[in-house]
Amino acid sequence: MRLLCLSDIHGHADALAAVLAAADRRGYSKLLVAGDLCFPGPEPLETWRRLTQVQAVTVQGTGDRALATLDIAKVVPRSEHERTRLSRLSEIRTELGQLILARLSRLPTTHRIDLEDGSELLLVHGSPVDPFEPFSHEMTDEEMFALVGDDPADIIVCGGSHVPFDRMVQGVRIINVGSVGEAPSGAGITGGHADATIIETHKAGIEVEQIAVPLGKAA
Protein backbone atom coordinates (compact mmCIF):
# COMPACT_ATOMS: atom_id res chain seq x y z
CA MET A 1 0.00 0.00 0.00
CA ARG A 2 1.25 3.45 -0.92
CA LEU A 3 -0.19 6.27 1.15
CA LEU A 4 -0.08 9.94 0.23
CA CYS A 5 -0.31 11.89 3.49
CA LEU A 6 -1.12 15.61 3.64
CA SER A 7 -2.32 18.17 6.17
CA ASP A 8 -3.23 21.83 6.60
CA ILE A 9 -4.48 22.60 3.10
CA HIS A 10 -6.32 25.65 4.46
CA GLY A 11 -8.41 26.20 1.34
CA HIS A 12 -5.48 26.48 -1.08
CA ALA A 13 -6.91 24.42 -3.94
CA ASP A 14 -4.08 25.32 -6.34
CA ALA A 15 -1.47 24.03 -3.90
CA LEU A 16 -3.50 20.86 -3.39
CA ALA A 17 -3.71 20.38 -7.17
CA ALA A 18 0.07 20.76 -7.49
CA VAL A 19 0.68 18.18 -4.78
CA LEU A 20 -1.78 15.71 -6.28
CA ALA A 21 -0.21 16.13 -9.72
CA ALA A 22 3.25 15.43 -8.31
CA ALA A 23 1.91 12.44 -6.38
CA ASP A 24 0.13 11.07 -9.45
CA ARG A 25 3.48 10.89 -11.23
CA ARG A 26 4.88 8.85 -8.35
CA GLY A 27 1.74 6.79 -7.80
CA TYR A 28 -0.27 6.23 -4.63
CA SER A 29 -3.21 4.07 -3.57
CA LYS A 30 -4.87 6.16 -0.84
CA LEU A 31 -4.90 9.79 0.26
CA LEU A 32 -4.86 10.60 3.99
CA VAL A 33 -5.41 14.20 5.14
CA ALA A 34 -4.78 15.22 8.75
CA GLY A 35 -7.28 18.07 8.96
CA ASP A 36 -7.51 21.84 8.45
CA LEU A 37 -9.04 21.51 5.01
CA CYS A 38 -10.82 24.73 3.99
CA PHE A 39 -10.08 27.72 6.26
CA PRO A 40 -8.93 30.46 5.66
CA GLY A 41 -7.63 30.16 2.10
CA PRO A 42 -9.05 31.52 -1.17
CA GLU A 43 -10.74 28.39 -2.56
CA PRO A 44 -12.45 26.43 0.23
CA LEU A 45 -15.23 24.96 -1.90
CA GLU A 46 -12.89 23.79 -4.67
CA THR A 47 -10.61 22.27 -2.03
CA TRP A 48 -13.51 20.31 -0.57
CA ARG A 49 -14.67 19.19 -4.01
CA ARG A 50 -11.21 17.97 -4.98
CA LEU A 51 -10.78 16.01 -1.76
CA THR A 52 -14.19 14.43 -2.26
CA GLN A 53 -13.35 13.62 -5.89
CA VAL A 54 -10.21 11.68 -4.94
CA GLN A 55 -12.01 9.99 -2.00
CA ALA A 56 -9.59 11.31 0.59
CA VAL A 57 -9.69 9.92 4.11
CA THR A 58 -9.86 13.03 6.28
CA VAL A 59 -9.94 13.82 9.99
CA GLN A 60 -11.10 17.00 11.67
CA GLY A 61 -8.65 19.80 12.34
CA THR A 62 -8.92 22.97 14.39
CA GLY A 63 -10.11 25.07 11.46
CA ASP A 64 -12.66 22.45 10.43
CA ARG A 65 -14.14 22.40 13.93
CA ALA A 66 -14.27 26.21 14.02
CA LEU A 67 -16.07 26.37 10.67
CA ALA A 68 -18.62 23.82 11.81
CA THR A 69 -19.26 24.84 15.40
CA LEU A 70 -17.93 28.27 16.41
CA ASP A 71 -20.63 30.75 17.46
CA ILE A 72 -19.26 33.92 15.89
CA ALA A 73 -21.79 36.08 17.72
CA LYS A 74 -20.21 35.12 21.04
CA VAL A 75 -16.64 35.88 20.00
CA VAL A 76 -15.24 39.32 20.78
CA PRO A 77 -12.19 39.96 18.54
CA ARG A 78 -9.17 41.28 20.41
CA SER A 79 -7.32 42.58 17.35
CA GLU A 80 -7.83 43.54 13.73
CA HIS A 81 -6.30 40.19 12.75
CA GLU A 82 -8.94 38.31 14.75
CA ARG A 83 -11.68 40.51 13.28
CA THR A 84 -10.46 39.67 9.77
CA ARG A 85 -10.32 35.94 10.55
CA LEU A 86 -13.87 35.95 11.91
CA SER A 87 -15.08 37.77 8.79
CA ARG A 88 -13.35 35.19 6.60
CA LEU A 89 -14.87 32.37 8.64
CA SER A 90 -18.32 33.78 7.97
CA GLU A 91 -17.59 34.12 4.24
CA ILE A 92 -16.39 30.53 3.97
CA ARG A 93 -19.44 29.23 5.80
CA THR A 94 -21.61 30.91 3.18
CA GLU A 95 -19.53 29.53 0.32
CA LEU A 96 -19.51 25.96 1.63
CA GLY A 97 -23.18 25.82 2.59
CA GLN A 98 -24.95 23.92 5.33
CA LEU A 99 -24.52 20.44 3.85
CA ILE A 100 -20.72 20.63 3.73
CA LEU A 101 -20.57 22.33 7.12
CA ALA A 102 -22.57 19.44 8.55
CA ARG A 103 -20.12 16.99 7.02
CA LEU A 104 -17.20 18.92 8.51
CA SER A 105 -18.86 18.71 11.91
CA ARG A 106 -19.12 14.92 11.57
CA LEU A 107 -15.52 14.31 10.53
CA PRO A 108 -13.82 11.96 13.01
CA THR A 109 -10.89 13.27 15.00
CA THR A 110 -8.91 10.08 14.38
CA HIS A 111 -8.67 7.30 11.79
CA ARG A 112 -6.83 4.01 12.26
CA ILE A 113 -5.33 1.68 9.64
CA ASP A 114 -3.95 -1.81 10.20
CA LEU A 115 -0.79 -2.25 8.14
CA GLU A 116 0.65 -5.35 6.47
CA ASP A 117 3.37 -5.84 9.07
CA GLY A 118 0.82 -5.98 11.90
CA SER A 119 1.40 -2.41 13.11
CA GLU A 120 -1.28 0.24 13.49
CA LEU A 121 -1.24 3.70 11.92
CA LEU A 122 -3.16 6.56 13.53
CA LEU A 123 -4.17 9.62 11.50
CA VAL A 124 -4.86 12.68 13.66
CA HIS A 125 -4.56 16.44 13.25
CA GLY A 126 -2.83 17.08 16.55
CA SER A 127 -1.99 14.23 18.90
CA PRO A 128 -3.66 11.21 20.54
CA VAL A 129 -4.08 12.95 23.90
CA ASP A 130 -5.68 16.00 22.26
CA PRO A 131 -6.60 15.91 18.54
CA PHE A 132 -6.23 19.70 18.44
CA GLU A 133 -2.86 19.99 20.20
CA PRO A 134 -0.11 19.28 17.67
CA PHE A 135 3.32 17.77 18.03
CA SER A 136 6.08 20.26 17.21
CA HIS A 137 9.55 19.60 15.84
CA GLU A 138 10.88 21.73 18.69
CA MET A 139 9.49 19.44 21.40
CA THR A 140 11.67 17.12 23.45
CA ASP A 141 11.02 13.39 23.30
CA GLU A 142 9.45 13.60 26.76
CA GLU A 143 7.06 16.34 25.65
CA MET A 144 6.08 14.35 22.58
CA PHE A 145 5.55 11.14 24.50
CA ALA A 146 3.26 12.97 26.91
CA LEU A 147 1.02 13.77 23.92
CA VAL A 148 1.08 10.12 22.81
CA GLY A 149 -0.38 9.05 26.15
CA ASP A 150 -1.50 5.45 26.27
CA ASP A 151 -2.56 5.26 22.62
CA PRO A 152 -1.66 1.87 21.13
CA ALA A 153 -0.71 3.11 17.65
CA ASP A 154 2.77 2.27 16.37
CA ILE A 155 2.81 5.10 13.79
CA ILE A 156 1.18 8.51 14.20
CA VAL A 157 0.60 10.61 11.06
CA CYS A 158 -0.25 14.18 11.99
CA GLY A 159 -0.10 17.87 11.06
CA GLY A 160 -1.04 21.04 12.86
CA SER A 161 2.37 22.59 13.42
CA HIS A 162 3.09 23.09 9.68
CA VAL A 163 6.67 21.78 9.89
CA PRO A 164 7.37 18.24 8.63
CA PHE A 165 9.45 15.79 10.66
CA ASP A 166 9.86 12.06 11.21
CA ARG A 167 10.90 10.97 14.71
CA MET A 168 10.94 7.79 16.75
CA VAL A 169 9.84 8.51 20.33
CA GLN A 170 9.98 5.62 22.81
CA GLY A 171 8.99 3.08 20.19
CA VAL A 172 6.35 5.23 18.49
CA ARG A 173 7.07 6.72 15.07
CA ILE A 174 5.65 10.23 14.80
CA ILE A 175 5.41 11.57 11.24
CA ASN A 176 4.31 15.19 10.90
CA VAL A 177 3.47 15.74 7.24
CA GLY A 178 3.82 19.52 7.31
CA SER A 179 1.52 21.90 5.45
CA VAL A 180 0.11 22.10 1.94
CA GLY A 181 -1.43 25.52 2.26
CA GLU A 182 0.18 27.70 4.88
CA ALA A 183 3.74 28.47 5.94
CA PRO A 184 4.64 28.32 9.66
CA SER A 185 4.68 32.12 9.74
CA GLY A 186 1.16 32.26 8.31
CA ALA A 187 2.54 34.45 5.54
CA GLY A 188 1.12 32.34 2.74
CA ILE A 189 2.68 30.06 0.18
CA THR A 190 3.28 32.08 -3.00
CA GLY A 191 6.74 31.32 -4.30
CA GLY A 192 7.27 28.61 -1.69
CA HIS A 193 6.44 24.94 -1.52
CA ALA A 194 3.84 22.51 -0.25
CA ASP A 195 4.73 19.55 1.96
CA ALA A 196 3.70 15.96 1.28
CA THR A 197 4.68 12.60 2.71
CA ILE A 198 4.54 9.26 0.95
CA ILE A 199 4.44 6.15 3.12
CA GLU A 200 5.09 2.81 1.44
CA THR A 201 3.78 -0.07 3.56
CA HIS A 202 4.70 -3.74 3.23
CA LYS A 203 5.13 -6.85 5.35
CA ALA A 204 8.65 -5.86 6.38
CA GLY A 205 7.61 -2.41 7.66
CA ILE A 206 7.28 1.05 6.12
CA GLU A 207 9.36 3.42 4.04
CA VAL A 208 8.79 7.17 4.44
CA GLU A 209 9.61 9.90 1.92
CA GLN A 210 8.90 13.53 2.75
CA ILE A 211 8.86 15.80 -0.29
CA ALA A 212 8.51 19.52 -1.04
CA VAL A 213 6.39 20.42 -4.08
CA PRO A 214 7.34 23.81 -5.62
CA LEU A 215 4.57 26.40 -5.87
CA GLY A 216 4.15 29.79 -7.45
CA LYS A 217 7.38 31.42 -8.56
CA ALA A 218 9.34 28.40 -7.29
CA ALA A 219 7.46 25.96 -9.51
Essential attributes:
single chain, alpha/beta, five-stranded mixed sheet, 25% strand
Number-wise, the strands total 10
* CATH domain class: Alpha Beta
Name the CATH architecture. 4-Layer Sandwich
Order of helices and strands: EHEHEHHEEHEEEEE
- The proportion of strand residues reads 25-35%
Average pLDDT rating = 94
Describe this structure as you would to a colleague.
This protein has five helices and ten strands. The protein is an alpha/beta fold and 219 residues long. The protein has a single domain, classed as Purple Acid Phosphatase, chain A, domain 2 (4-Layer Sandwich), CATH 3.60.21.10. Helix 1 runs parallel beside helix 2 (44-53) and helix 3 crosses helix 4 (80-105). The radius of gyration is 17 Å and the shape is globular.
Quick gist of this model?
The protein is an alpha/beta fold and 219 residues long.
Helix/strand layout:
Elements: E1 2-6, H1 13-26, E2 30-33, H2 44-53, E3 57-58, H3 62-69, H4 80-105, E4 110-114, E5 120-124, H5 141-148, E6 155-158, E7 165-169, E8 172-176, E9 193-202, E10 205-214
Parallel strand pairs: 1-2, 2-3, 5-6, 6-8
Antiparallel strand pairs: 1-9, 4-5, 7-8, 9-10
Helix pairs in contact: 1-2, 3-4
